[in-house]
Structures are given as C-alpha cells and as structure tokens.
Write a structure and sequence with these properties.
The complex is a heterodimer.
Chain A lengths: L2 H30 L4 H7 L9 H19 L4 H35 L4 H23 L5 H21 L3 H6 L2 H11 L4 H16 L1 H5 L8 H25 L2 H21 L7 H21 L1 H29 L7 H35 L1
Helix pairs in contact in A: 1-4, 1-9, 1-12, 3-4, 4-5, 8-9, 9-11, 11-14, 12-13
Chain B lengths: L3 H29 L10 E7 L2 E6 L11 E4 L10 E3 L2 E2 H7 L4 E5 L12 H20 L4 E6 L1 H12 L4 E7 L11 H8 L2 H8 L4 H11 L1 H14 L4 H14 L7 H13 L2 H4 L3 E2 L2 E2 L9 E6 L7 H4 L2 H4 L5 E6 L5 H4 L1 H18 L29 E2 L1
Helix pairs in contact in B: 2-15, 3-4, 6-10
Classes of the chains: A mainly alpha, B alpha/beta.
C-alpha cells in the first residue's frame, strides 16, 4: 500500500470511528431520554428547522454592529470589538452544532438499525462541527498576526504574477487538486493530506525536476536563484498541511470527550442545562486536548518544519527582491544591516571612550 | 404540550438573545473607547542610553526603605504590566509600602538595533542603570528586582557584579530551561533560531505574541472575549479589560542577536545553570550570588513553569534565601487580587529587614562587614506559600 492510499485508509478508519462513537453515544443518551412520539411528529418533515438559526442571527447582529463600527474611528475599542465578534461566531457555531445534535437525537433513536439514515445524520453533525472548527481557526488574533500568517503567501502570489510564470494553469490542469481545494474550503480538513501528497507528487515529477537542473549562460545566477525560490515555495507549501492536519483529529477527539463529559453529567443529573455550560465544557476540554498536542513531538516537528521552510522561502524571496532592487536607488536590507552593524560598533567604541574619559577625570580629581 | 427538545430550544434561544443584547450594549462602550492609559504612576526620566530609559517613581510619601530598588522587566512585552492601573499596580503598592523605586524601560528595538546583544543589555544598559542609581544615591549597593526574563538578566548581573547588589529579588523568572512543563521550553527545541534571526533580523513582536496566544488558544483567543460580553453592563470592567488587551498586544520586536543567544544558549543549551554562559567574555557563575535572595514564582505559571524558577535558590551561595509561591498564573502575579493584597507588602517587608536603617550613603558598611546576613535559614522556609 503506498503512502497516499495508507493515508486515505487512515482517514476512512477515522471517519468510521467517529460514526461508531457518535452512534454509541446517541444510543445511550437516547435510553436516558427516550423520545416522545409528539416530539418526533413535531420534527417530521423538517430536517433541520433550526439550521443556521444562531449563525443567521449572529450575522444579522454583526451586520448591525459592523455598520456602526465601520463608521467609528479606529482605536483600541474598535479592534477589541472585532475580536469579540470573532469569538461570538465560535459561540454561535457551537450553539448551533449542539442544537443540531440534540435535535437529531430523537431522529437517530428512531432510525436505529437504519444505517443509511444514521449515516446521514452523523455526516450532518460532522459537517456542522467542521464549521465550529473553521470558526476557531479564524478566531480573533491581532490584525498584524493575521497579516503575518498570510503575508508570505501573498508575497509569493505577487511574485508569481510579476514573473509571469504560470503556476495557475498547472494547478488548474489538475481536477483532483481543484476538487480537494473545494473540499478544504468546505471544511473537510482530510483534503489537506491528500492535497499535500498530490502536490508533492506532481511537483517532483514536473517542475521539481526543472528546478534542480543547473542553469547556463549569462543569467545562470539569476535563474538558479529563481528556481531555488520556487523550490522553497513548494517545500513550504507542502509542509503546511502536516502542521494543520494535526488540528482536525485533535478537535474531533476533544469532541468525543465533550460528549462523554456531557453524558456523565446527565447521568449524575447535574446538567448541563445551558449553552454556556456546554460551551465551558467544550473550550476547557479543547484547551487540554490541544495542550497535549502542542506538547507532542509530532507537533513540534511539524511546526519546526513549517517554520524552517517558511523562513527559507522568505530568505530566498528577500534575495530575489534585493537583486531586482539593485537598479533602484534605494538601500537593500543587506545594506541597511551593514549600517546597523557599523552603528553597533561605533556605539561600543563611544562607550569605551566615554568610560576612559570618566576614569581619567576621576584620577585627575584624585590627583588634584 | 412542548417536547423536551422544544423546551430546550426555547431556553437556548433566550440565552442567545441575552448574549446578543449584551454584545450590542458593549459595542457602545467599546466604540467610545479609542484608547486607555497604562502605567500612570508619576515618574521622572533620570537616565537614558540609546533607546533604554531609566525612570524614578515619585512616591507620595518619603520612602522608608533606605536602599532604592531597581526593577528590570522582560524585553518581551512591556513593563507597564507592573503598573497597569490604579488598584491593580504592583508598583503603586510597593511605593505605598515605603520603597524607593526605579524601573528600566527597554524601549522598542528597530532594525538598526538588530545587532544588540544579550551582553549589551546586561553588561551595558542594566549595568549603567545600576551605576547611575549608585552614583545618584551615593550607595555602593542597591536592591535589584528582575521580573520574568528581566529576572534572568538580574540574576546574571548579580552573578557578575555581586558587589553592587545588596538584595536580589527574582519574580516568575526562568533559570532552569531544561523542563518539559512549559510549552515555550518545548517549542524552542524545534525552532531554528539562527535561520529565524538571519532571515528576519529582529523577531517581530506580533510573532512572539502569536506564540504566546497559542499556549492557551481557546482561553486567550475565544473565551476571554466571550467573558467580556458578560461584563457589558459594567463600563469600568470593560475598560479594565481594554487595559489588559492593550498590554498584551504591545509587544516590542526582539533584537535579533539578543534573542538568538537567549534561545540558543539558555532555552536550548541551558548554559546558565551549567555555568557555561558567558557575558562579554566572562563566565556567569550563579554561585557568586551571595546576597540575600527572594525568589518568587507563580504556581500556575504557563509561561515560566515553577520547575524553571524554583531551582535558583539551590544554585546560589547566599545563606539567606527565601522562596515564595503564589497560587496564581504568570499574569496573575501582577494583577490578581491575591497578589495585589499580599505581594507588595511581602516584598517591602523582606527588603526593609535586609536594607538596614536609613543610613547616609557613604556610611554604608563595606561588603566584608555586612551585618545584615541572616543565619543559615536557607533550607527552612522554602516553598512557603503566601
């Protein structure tokens, strides 16, 4: 079994595992709270009457606030408001997911034994939970941090356009890639793994071969610099999924724990009764789960790799940019750093001389 | 008759309605607040060298402690945390308890400062600040307090110049970096610091901040904002939140060569406690710290775990070592009600006991004659919680 197949297989096993645990959970939960026929009747024919309820509501509120905030002057309060709105989106998405789960329980209970129906319900839950995870990933970090997370990719994009080298046709020629990108956009993080494999495979067989070829002629250095930069870009791009793909299973594993905890509380008849109680269980459980992930060597290695490739890419991009800017009458970073180095040495010399003068003055005073 | 699910849904809808109403109310308070002031305790600039500034706080009453205290905060984030707001200010509390306080403000390094080294920060800037106070007060030795990374600096300085430090206080200070209790300690092992500094020059403050947020992503990036909505009806509480938010996001860039050495030689190689760290060509031997030491750490510190701070007492030669812990986190050490109530009086009392009477500067006994040494109480009294 090659690597790609193995990964696909792993994910299908994982998906089955999710289904299995959700099914068991729903079954035991249903025994505690057997559905009443009138409630089944109420929901019959209404697949998800509450779908989008909170997010629509939240969107409406945010539009109202957004209009006001948009007219307000920039400042600390405004910045914090936008961060709060981001966090509120997570809360709304989680609330909606929970409502979906509770609403689906009677249906699931009555569909016991109906594999197709059960699968539909579980898939809906997983899809809904993916939306929660999406909101978490896009949750409020400072603008400049967001900028930092995207700036390298933006730079690369600009660079591609500027050099006229056609990455896009290459990408677009790969229907699988597009399909995976679409799945990713919809929150299916398993597509990341497949994408990475596909990307790397395609790259190694095509452009990768070109980029490692030595160049000739007058533009040898320049061409090799460009090729090295593209190679660094691919390496960076293909290292990111390994970093992010750890998040999804951790999130799903945390969800399993949340379900267990809620069930335990129900058994003990101590709640949770409110969305805030569920939310509290959810975020604390996730915090612990991600803490464990962040402590693991797998995460450390993936983070280190992504960081190293990202920095290497930036280094090469800076070199290319500096080369282009040579003809302009502006100082490059390298030149600026040379000045900084000289300034630093001058500071040291000035300090030494100052100390020497002070020492001489002290001695003079003693003599006098 | 409503089904349990309908009842539950109705309750949830009410709850979300309440949340959204609060969010709307809070919007008004937030949009009216363009900025908030931090660190408002009055102080005077008394010395400046490049971007580094030394301030002297103006006490409301004459200080009763005869030896001034110099505070060295971390390069990461700002010292304003020590004086966040009235009612939550460690500085103000210490002033009220009779201490005479100076503080180093490291400033914001620019690209021009990328070659500033750890040696420069400790052996030039900190050293010159200490000398300035010694000269100004006429004292041979002053009290030194380092906080967080500033505590590591203070310990290194005290080891290099024990003759200039009368009492040393370290607060939430990393000393032993070889621990698995802190994520920062773990993550640093996987980072290619040389590549990072060579590529970026200075390390952007926002990059550091993102790392700190990732230590507790759900709490720091989501839950605290959800909690903020709960305080919508209390504008004062919202403004307090904004002060903290301003502080958290006010992260100076880190001078490239400084952070390179700090991460490589301390986080990765743990050279400080191995006695292998060199500053300006001189080995830093923690055993040279022979003055009274008060080592304070936070029991729930996620940035500097207790296992990183606690060992200092064992590594110095002081016969007077006091180790104290507080049941708070790293930030709670400066702002929690418990620390507000107990921390400043404890520090003030500890210093007063060891700073002698209000002597004239030149009359201070020389190091060899020090009479303030406490008997070997080293082991006793350790790990006491306040």
């Amino acid at each position: 079994m090659d690597r790609e197949e193995r990964e696909t297989d792993l994910f299908s096993q994982w998906f089955e595992f999710q289904r299995s645990f959700l099914s068991q959970w729903a079954d035991s939960f249903g025994r505690m709270h057997p559905p009443r026929t009138d409630s089944l009747g109420f929901w019959q024919g209404m697949t998800t009457p509450y779908a989008g309820l909170f997010s629509q509501w939240s969107k409406m509120i945010q539009e109202t606030i957004g209009k006001t905030a948009g007219q307000a002057e920039e400042g600390l309060g405004r910045t914090v408001l936008f961060r709060t709105l981001g966090a509120s989106n997570v809360f709304a998405a989680l609330s909606e997911f929970w409502l979906e789960v509770l609403g689906g329980l009677p249906e699931l209970y009555s569909a016991k034994g109906d594999a197709v129906k059960s699968r539909e319900i579980f898939e809906k839950w997983v899809e809904r939970y993916n939306r929660v995870l999406e909101q978490v990933v896009g949750s409020p970090v400072s603008d400049s941090a967001q900028e930092m997370m995207t700036s390298w990719l933006n730079t690369v994009q600009t660079y591609q356009t500027a050099t006229g080298l056609a990455w896009n046709p290459w990408i677009q020629a790969m229907p699988q890639w597009r399909e995976q990108a679409e799945r990713l956009m919809k929150g299916d993080w398993t597509a990341l793994t497949e994408t990475r494999s596909l990307w790397r495979e395609a790259y190694d067989d095509t452009l990768g071969r070109v980029f490692v070829m030595p160049a000739f002629g007058l533009t040898k250095e320049h061409v090799e610099r460009l090729r090295r930069t593209y190679d660094a870009f691919v390496r960076f791009w293909s290292s990111l999924p390994a970093f992010y793909e750890l998040f999804h299973p951790t999130g799903m594993e945390a969800l399993r724990e949340v379900f267990d905890k809620v069930q335990d509380l129900k058994v003990e008849k101590i709640g949770p009764e409110t969305l805030r109680e569920i939310y509290l269980i959810w975020w604390t459980t996730n915090e612990n789960a991600f803490f464990k992930l962040f402590k693991s060597p797998e995460f450390g290695n993936a983070m280190g790799e992504a960081l190293t490739h990202g920095l290497t890419l930036k280094k090469f991009l800076d070199e290319v940019t500096a080369e282009w800017c040579k003809v302009l009458s502006i100082p490059s970073n390298r030149e600026f750093d040379e000045v900084a180095m000289v300034v630093q040495e001058l500071r040291k010399k000035a300090r030494q001389q100052q100390k020497a003068i002070e020492e001489l003055q002290r001695k003079l005073e003693q003599v006098a | 008759m409503e089904s349990p699910f309908e009842e539950q849904t109705a309750l949830f809808v009410k709850e979300i309605d309440k949340y959204n109403s609060r969010l709307l109310r809070m919007t008004e308070t937030l949009l009216q607040t363009k900025d908030v002031d931090l660190a408002t305790s009055p102080k005077d600039l008394v010395f400046q060298e490049d971007k580094v500034k030394l301030y002297h706080f103006r006490p409301e009453k004459r200080p009763s402690c005869p030896v001034p205290l110099l505070i060295s905060y971390a390069l990461v984030n700002r010292e304003t945390m020590m004086d966040l707001e009235e009612g939550r200010s460690v500085i103000r509390n210490m002033l009220d308890h009779g201490l005479d306080i100076y503080i180093i403000v490291w400033g914001y390094p620019s690209r021009l400062d990328r070659y500033l080294t750890l040696d420069d920060y400790i052996d030039i800037y900190m050293s010159d600040c200490v000398d300035h106070i010694r000269k100004e007060t006429g004292l041979e030795r002053i009290n030194l307090m380092g906080v967080c990374q500033g505590g590591t600096f203070a310990a290194i300085y005290a080891a290099l110049y024990p003759e200039k430090v009368r009492n040393l206080i370290t607060m939430v200070t990393p000393i032993d970096f070889d621990t698995d209790d802190g994520l920062l300690n773990i993550w640093c092992r996987y980072m290619d610091m040389d590549l990072m500094v060579d590529t970026l020059g200075n390390i952007p403050g926002d990059f550091m901040n993102l790392g700190f947020l990732m230590l507790k992503p759900f709490q720091l990036m989501i839950d605290k904002y959800i909690g903020l909505v709960d305080s919508a009806e209390d504008p004062a509480s919202v403004r307090n939140f904004l002060r903290m938010e301003k502080w958290i996001n006010d992260s100076p860039d880190q001078a490239g060569e400084t952070i390179r050495k700090f991460v490589n030689e301390l986080y990765k190689e743990n050279k400080l406690i191995k006695g292998q760290l060199q500053i300006d060509g001189r080995k830093v031997d923690l055993k040279r710290i022979d003055m009274p030491l008060l080592n304070i750490y936070a029991e729930q510190d996620h940035l500097v775990p207790p296992s990183s701070s606690e060992p200092l007492g064992e590594l110095v030669s002081s016969t007077d070592v006091t180790t104290r812990s507080f049941p708070v986190g790293h930030i709670g050490m400066y702002v929690s009600s418990k620390s507000q109530r107990d921390l400043a009086p404890m520090i003030a009392e500890w210093l007063m006991e060891r700073s002698g009477r209000a002597t004239g500067a030149k009359r201070e006994p020389s190091r060899g004659n020090r009479g303030t040494k406490r008997p070997a109480a080293r082991r006793a009294g350790r790990r006491r919680s306040v």
